[in-house]
Design a protein that fits this description.
The protein is α/β, with parallel strands linked by helices. Strand 18, helix 23 (569-581) and strand 19 (586-591) form a beta-alpha-beta unit. Residues 1-22 are annotated as: Disordered.
Length: 638
Amino acid sequence: MITEPPDTDGGESAHAAEGQAAKRGLPRRTVLTAGAVVAAGGVAAAVAVDKFRAGRRLSGEVPTVAEYAVARLADLGIEHVFGVPGDFAFGLDNAIEAEKRLTWVGAANELNAAYAADGYARIRGAAILCTTYSVGELSALNGVLGSYAERLPVFHLVGQPSSKLQRVRAVTHHSLGDGMFRQFEALSAASACVSAHLTARNAIAEMERVITEALAQRRPAYLTIAADEALLPVIGTPVAGMALTEVPRPQSDPASLDAAITAITDRVTASKATVVLPAYTIGRFGLGRQLIRLLDASGLAYATTPMDKAQIPETNRHFLGMYAGDNSEPDVKKAVESAEVILNLGGVAFIDSNTGQWTDGLDPARMITVWPDHVRIGHTDFSAVYLADVLERLTTALSKTETPRLDSPATPSISGAVGDPVSSATLYPRLAKFLRDNDIVLAETGLCLNPMSRIRLPEGAVFHNQTLWGSIGWATPAALGTTLADPSRRTVLVTGDGAHQLTANEIGTMGRYGVKPVIIVLNNAMYGIEEILNEHQGHVYDVLAPWNYHQLPGALGCKDWYTARVTTVGELDTALTTAATHNNGCYLEIMLGRSDIPPSLPAPVLHMVYQTTPDSPPLPPIATVAAAEQMNGSGQLA
């Protein structure tokens, strides 16, 4: 719930702020209430606010609510804010602009801003999104919900109408015209693990509560500030912040941790074969190095699902390969499914798109699941036990055993004559060769995700997708976020044309901020993923508007980008060679054609996944909430 709803015109907070000003010898008029701002009107209001804020900064005065919230988030080490400006959010927008540690990144729309913040948080550990009330925050909602589903702490700052406008039930723009201003809060709050309405009186305490909870859960936070409250000085002593890497982790209950470690080691020691499945949460909580130490100390082998790919380098000698049910390589599938114990570290999401449409043959009874905040073994739940502590303790508790290794997969062969048309068979082996150490690889939801997840990545390269939420269009703005989060690494985005059309306008933002991604757009003129998920192909609703994709960077203001439309294998080789050395953004439109779209999934599989016919095959146990409850005791994925 939202704490301290904005149902007054400044009330106690405004009077208290005026009192503080009087004690400091400042004239009472320097405290700008909603009435003062509205009365100033238009440009005059903006000038008055800017002069007021600038004067206080120069004199070392207490920060405003907006300034404090923004500065407290900058303390975490976040350096960029993604958003779209709006009049109700001007207090926040101005505070962001004035904060020297932050750079405003103006996105093409709020949804794109949310996607970009999602990508940024995947690399930097947290992100800031700023929108205006209602029209702005609701436009961003899909993107923020994706961050919730995939456990990314995005701090969503929302500027609301002044508390006076809300109290008198004014009929304003960005509303339904009914004088009601609270109905949207519940919608946005549903996308967050913690919410607060900041006022002058509560801002200091609430920011600590919100930051602590968002980082503990690695999920978004929703922060609203009324336009008048944004301009008031905070009441109390500001907290000295710390970097994200220095924020203390929650500590496990000692007795529960001891019991969990004993139970895990007993099961693993008695097992003839244990395989580790590390989840995406290893990366979210920054535990990759601890996982490597555990694998080295125990000798256990591991595999990853597509969603969990490359949480640690795939050059690691303990790596078996990708596991996704029947979409796995046969030897990887056999190694995982024949193991007596599956050590699920972090909470793998056993969803349809992560398991080869639930074709995984995993028995929940053989699963030990270490969730971020508790452990589940059979029907026994060990509460208040945290993943970081389990990894550390298991590193010393497990005896060294050498799990049989699989032979390293052969390097995909490069095939195709110079004049041959490009196909998936000729494209993906070349993309595997194109990738280099430390790349940030993004694969959009669509036909490209499965073949990209099969590529064995080079040293230090990471892989990001949106397997759980699966909102097409996510990857292009997310690539903006990853390039800004770490410009020292190359971002390589692979996306289908259908998803790209949803958010391609963010390329203009890439040009504006000088980032240098490699964008590879696969043009088959269709929503290809929808085609294979339908029993019958060729539907008119899957046909896309024809775009000249390779001309987009120039049209959207990108300077000195290398762009190419590729139709043959020879052109593909030339384009990839050029992109590998070009010192700016690169944009390759790969013409695949509709003939490259795979056939539909078998009808029985589709009937089982979607349960649309009376005789649909039953769902496997792993696909139900009941199975999730057996594995983690809560029915939640993570």
